[in-house]
Structures are given as structure tokens and as C-alpha cells.
Amino acid sequence: MTAIPLEHVLILACILFTIGFFGVIVRKNTLFMLMSLEVMLNAVGVAFIGAGSVWQQADGQVMFILILTLAAAEVAVGLALLIRLQQRFKSLDIDCLSQLKG
Amino acid sequence: MIVRFASIESLFYLAALIAIIASLKVVTQKNTVHALLYLVVSLLAVAVCFYLMGAPFAAGLEVIVYAGAILVLFVFAIMMFGLKNDETKYAPQSKGLTIWLGPCVLAVLLLVALLFSFDSADIQQQLNATVISSKEVGILLYGPYLLAVEIASFLLLAGLVAGYHYAKPDAQGGHL
Q: Which end of chain A is more exposed for a tag (fewer CB within 10 A), N or C?
């Protein structure tokens, strides 16, 4: 049992997740949306680590490592797509994607 | 004086506050590079939170993989974008200190919190009692979670292949 109460850790995770979520919703620049996604994934990691430390189990850290690999793969694919977007439309605006035709 | 009042909780709240402020700045910045600076500070603050929660292994991973590898990926991508048609030109012109003063102050506050926790024998004793070592994590990772590790490795391979394919220039036969 750590000195930090679980409620406060979860409140921190909620606040960080909300900030990231509003970043994804509000921003139009896709690069900022990717950064906000990072903040959101990070908040989930905080919740997992906090729960793992309260119950003194290593499972929380295992889940954190899996989230880390997910974030790395997501950023790699996302940035490659953004490079494509920038080459084609000369802009990172998310509204440019509505012009895509299948 | 201050050292006596510094407990794990207060240090955690300081780091959490820094993480929230830095995350807010990431979302509200106009310039991508300045937002990246604040993102680094936010990730470092979360790493300090992990350390204070008794997970030094996760804190190290956060600094190395998130603040190290993923952020470098962002910086490379921003350099490739050229930033000519980005929001940067609408941002206020350089005002000397002001741009990097914010992230610097937050990072120094984090360093002070970390040094307090190293300095205080009481906090160190409390942290050592609750720490979850990397050995336990490793045993769990290659025991019950073996399948999840395999799936994560497939995910990384898929990310590698997709990143290579999507970012390939048209001249080299790249097409979507």
C-alpha cells in the first residue's frame, strides 16, 4: 500500500484523459491531434500504474508496457500518414481529408 | 525546513500539477515545436508520478520510450513537414526568453521534487517498502502474458511495415 490514495491517482488520470480528449476534438491540426492522443494514452498508463501499486501487483506495469508498444506503433503509422497528407494537400488540416475519394 | 514538510503525497501532487499544466499547454499552443516542448515536460512529470507511486521501472520506460523515442519521431516528422503552411506563421514572433522559459521552469520544479525525494531518508524508506521490481514484471510478462507480448510484437512489426510503406515517396513506387 503506497502513501498516495487511489482516488487521487484516478482523478489525475481522468483530468489528463479529458485534456487529451478535448485536444483531439477541438484541434484541427492533425499533428496536435496525435499529440493529444499521446496525452490520453499516458493518462490510461497512470491509471494502470496507480492501481497496480495499490494492490502491489505487477500486472499494472505489464499493461503499461503493452500500452507503450501500442503508442509507439500508433505514432509511427500516424506520422507516416501525416507526411502523406502534407505532401498531397500541403496542409495538415483534418478537413482536407474530407476531399478524399475512395 | 521545506524538506521536513515534503512527503510523498505533496511531491506527487506537485508532479501531477505540472503534468496537468503542461498537458493544457500542449493542447492550447499554436506552434508545434513549442507544444512538443511542453509534451516532453508532461511525460517527464508523469514519469516522476510513476516513481513516487513505487514503479521506478515504468518511470524509466516512460522517459526512455515516450520522452526519448516517440518524441524524437515527432521532431523528425515536423522537420519533414517544412512548417511553411502550418499555423506557425500566425504565431507571435520570437520574444527571446519567453518561449522556452515555461517548459524550463516546469522541468526545474520536477527536478527539485525528485531531488527532495532522493534527499529525504524517510521518503526513500517508504518508497523502497512499496516498490514493484522489474523482476516481477518480467516474470509476469513472459509467463501468463506471453500471448500478449507476441501480439504486441506483431503490432510493432505492422507499424514498421505501414510506416515504411506510407511514407515512401511517389518516385519510389509508393502509392496509396
A: C
